[in-house]
Amino acid sequence: xxxxxxxxxxxxxxxxxxxxxxxxxxxxxxxxxxxxxxxxxxxxxxxxxxxxxxxxxxxxxxxxxxxxxxxxxxxxxxxxxxxxxxxxxxxxxxxxxxxxxxxxxxxxxxxxxxxxxxxxxxxxxxxxxxxxxxxxxxxxxxxxxxxxxxxxxxxxxxxxxxxxxxxxxx
Length: 170
What we know:
By secondary structure, this protein is α/β, with parallel strands linked by helices. 24% of the residues lie in helices and 30% in strands.
């Protein structure tokens, strides 16, 4: 019993320290960890994907008509992290990509990961509101989703968008 109390005290102490550090850094305690970006070149789109100009502004109405391709969105952050973060902060983003994974993310929240192909790397991670929403899509399916920009996590984890919802399936 004494050992369990010591372990519980240690876990709570760590949680309090983490919360305090996040507050000092002006980061919300539920933020996705950001990593230092390695030097990375923008990702080229596959030859069978028509090249499109990046949109001038994010789709704030969620119609899918102005959806940005997940590779284009990702490349904006790789090219100029500060400018892309400023552009999308506080904005709703509608993006189209191929579902490569559904399930709990590293924080245990229900998420849908999008790429440019079924076996591609993750470019955008949409955090959805419930695990039931994951049943709306299948791996390999092309979808358009909308949600609120949260953070560019890293070159490995891509753009994180919260309050995601599927608005169109192809």
